[in-house]
Design goal:
Radius of gyration: 19 Å
Number of domains: 2
Number of helices: 2
Number of strands: 16
Largest sheet: 7 strands, mixed, barrel
CATH class of the largest domain: Mainly Beta
Strand order of the largest sheet: 3-5-7-8-14-15-16
CATH superfamily of the largest domain: Acetoacetate decarboxylase-like
Helix content: under 10%
CATH architecture of the largest domain: Beta Barrel
Structural class: mainly beta
Strand content: over 45%
CATH topology of the largest domain: Acetoacetate decarboxylase-like
Shape: globular
Amino acid sequence: MVVRTEGSFQILKASDGEVLPSHRSTYPEIPTFYRGMETQFVEMEVDPEVAAAHLPEPLVADPDGGAIGIALKIPLSSYGPFNEAGIHLKCSFEGEPAYYNSHLFLNNVTAICAGRERWGVAKEFAEISFSDHENVRVCEVVKEGALLMRLSTTWDALAEPAELPVLAPNLNLKIIPRADGPGAALKQLVRYESEEVGASTQYSGRGLVEFRSTAKTDLAPLNPISVGRGFFHKGDLQELHGAIIHDYLGKHSQ
């Protein structure tokens, strides 16, 4: 395999290479940016047993089934514009609170590749739309031709940044399968890292989340037992390198 450098192609050295295709990377290098990102959050509680079934060991599910439904409208980013929605399950790692990103749906192939390959984010392609009705924003996720998720929030009052849910540490399971047989060639629990840049605006209000199922994707069991507050946030973000916090195969320690 060869790479092109300064107008010429050169053989890829054994010590070089980070992403594929190696001669024309699918996505840009870290740090990457998001501008004018509009995010909806909905606090909720789900069945703790169902939540636990979606967590990899050694994560421990929140006994109350705490979770956050999230939807993002991203007009400009290093990956291009896209929409995104998903679920973060409250849990703990070695006794410390965290959130595990169990499901994330979006409509941008570049962002899917980057999220899966870099951090192990459970990204899947879906059709995602937003609509505004008076003071209500509605996000709908359609996958396999059927409505899979609907999230809505209101803008009722200005909120302080400290009122918003803090989805950190944000943990993901990064797995790369073996080429020579079943099993994983790489399996790591990864902490996603990002930071807010510049000023932001946020609102509080009411929220609602609904999950459905298709023949292939079963989200209905995660329907909320109870729903808390809804929030809306608009601001800029940059992504940073993450951290490997647990290596299942013992090939990396940090």
